Structure formats: C-alpha cells, structure tokens
Amino acid sequence: MSAARPLTTLRAVALTAALPLLLTACGYGSEAVKDDAPKANVAADAKKLSASEVRIGYFPNLTHATALVGLQEGLIAKELGATAIKPQAFNAGPSEIEALNGGSLDIGFIGPSPSINAYVKSKGSNLRIISGSASGGVKLVVNPAKIKTLDDLKGKNIATPQKGNTQDVAFLNWISEKGWKVDPESGKGDVSVVRTDNKVTPDAFKSGSIDGAWVPEPTASKLVSDGGTVLLDETALWPDKKFVITNIIVSQKFLKEHADIVEAVLTGTVKTNEWINANPDKAKASANAKLAAEGGKPLDAKIIDPAWPSILITDDPLAATLKTQAEWAVEAKLIEQPDLNGIYDLKLLNKVLKAAGKPEVSDAGLGAK
To answer: What is the full DSSP assignment across 208-236?
Structure first.
C-alpha cells in the first residue's frame, strides 16, 4: 500500500477558504461552478498528447486538497504538456456524475458513495476509480448540554448530509451496531436521522433543531466553534484508522481513448501529494489561494486548524474500505447488493507509483479485467 500522509504538519499557516456554502465532502449541494482562474501557459515545444484538453472536476473543499494544490501550483498541468486543463468546480456529487455521464467532464475528484451509486446504476459502464486522494475528516459533533455519552444519542436529532451519502451510511451502520432501529428512508427511529445539507447544518445546530451531526470537515469544526463537542472521530472505527473519503474517477470512454492523458494527470496528482507533505507551509498557502479564488469569506483559524490535520492525503484508494461502505449501504437497505467488479482500474496509477519508486496499491479484488 502507498503510504498515507497526514496533514498535521500543515497547521503552521492559517488556511482561508470560501467554504461556508461548500462544506460537503461527498459533494451534495448545488450545481457546478465555473473556474475562471488563469490557465497555465503552455510552452511552444511542450509534448503533444492525444487530446488538446482535459476537463477535471473537483470540489472547493478541504478533502480535495490534491486537486486544489495540484491546479494552483501547476503540478498537474506540468505533466500534461500541450494538453490544457479545463477545471470545473462542483458542489454536488450528482451534478459531477451527470457531467461525467454527459461527456462534459473527463476526470473528477469525488466521494465513494456517488462513485458506487453511479457505477451500479450504469451497470458498470460509465466510470472507473483510478486513484485515491483523501481519507478521514469525518466526526460526530454534539451539543454537550444535551449529549454527554454515545448512549445519550438515543432519542436525539442527529444530522447527516443526505440520505445514502457516505456519512449517512456510516451513521446508520453505527446505529445498527448499537442495536438501535432506524427506518433508512424516513430516518425515524431510536435516533432521528435528519438529512440536512451541510451548508445549513451550522444554523440548524445553533437553533437547536438538531442535537448533533455526523459530518465531514470543515463542517464538524464549524459546529465545534459554535459550542459543539467532538464525541467520535469516524477514523477510530476503521482498521488502520483509514477510510476513503475522496477518489479520483474517470470516464471509461476517456480512459480508453486517452490513456496517455490519464497517466499524465495521475503523475501530477502523485507528485502533488508528495509536494504537499514536503512543503507544508507553501501547500497550505496554495490551497488557501485556490479556495479564495472561488469567492466568499475565509474560514477562521479556529475552524481550519482542527479540521486540516484530521484529513489524510493518500494515493491509495483504500479499496477495501469502499467495499465495506457498500456492504453497509446494503445492510441499511439503501441499495441492492451491488456488483462492484471492475469499478477500479489502478494499472496506470501503479505504473506511475512504480516509476516513482513507491509501493503499488490494491484494488481489493474489484479491478477491471
């Protein structure tokens, strides 16, 4: 497995970001946002690849640090030579998948649940997961006046970002393991699971309409800044304290027709992940610059400081954890038993990792033949 690299060392520089409206790690919210940032200049003698441009989607979110820094620093563009990047920021997993299906997007950074749902609905025809990007960054934050222990959650209103999204599935599985009952469709039961868009969750928390939330960063740290307490970090529930929160996906058509470009992008993301850890202060400032370019007010240091180190950057897609997340969704009766065989194609990533002297990563038996 490729070593996952913590972002703990990046706390030295305060990261400001336009995220109050963009807080969902798995991308459920509004529609795509144009990225009008200047594109990197292409040298006249730059290498020629099989297409003139590649369209890359991402979320202006902390869990998409690879995309933010890789685009801002030109580390991905450098590997593409004469092929220009056309970046597009999304706030919604479904809209990114729609763009991929509709042919207006080639490669995207996205969470595991949208990846699974899209792969299953298309009967394995529309995407492949080609790399990991991030792990962790999900916490259960509660109102300490109402909830002091995990057992106190019974009878309380707890928010998740959306029915069937990655955090919703994890929380329903945790509830089931406690022996409590919740209807997965309505969210009603021993715990009331309130599906709430992350951008309004802080207001719901402050108003008292929810007693806590199982949410990604930086929403979790925003709730803490509003008086909440972290009762559980989801990382503690996973073997090796790692679970996938962001993948890199590609249109199967684009992968087939432009493997050279996909390989170049992956070379750029692997180098970006390495650069983030080798240059922590510069990397955090770079992510800040990219997020600030999206517009809006910055995150306060009291939010970003605890949020940033809870996210792990990794080339490894942590495929076994995606398989587990799918099993949880089946057990919660949110999806039928999925056939995920072929959802991963890690051949190009492993080629890039080998060339860089790094360990290859596993597809947990779910690789394309």
So the answer is: TS-SEEEEETTHHHHHHHTT-EEEEEGGG
| Tens of pLDDT, residue by residue, the chain (369 residues) | 444 444 433 333 333 333 333 333 343 333 455 554 444 445 456 778 999 999 999 988 888 999 999 999 999 999 999 999 999 998 878 889 999 999 999 999 999 999 999 999 999 999 999 999 999 999 999 999 999 999 999 999 999 998 988 899 999 999 999 999 999 999 999 999 999 998 899 999 999 999 999 999 889 999 999 999 999 999 999 989 999 999 999 999 999 999 999 999 999 999 999 998 888 778 877 877 787 887 666 778 888 888 888 999 999 999 999 999 999 999 999 989 999 999 999 999 999 999 999 999 999 999 987
Q: Does an H or E element contain 96, and which?
A: helix 93-102
Spatial contact of 65 and 245, defined as CB atoms under 8 Å apart: no
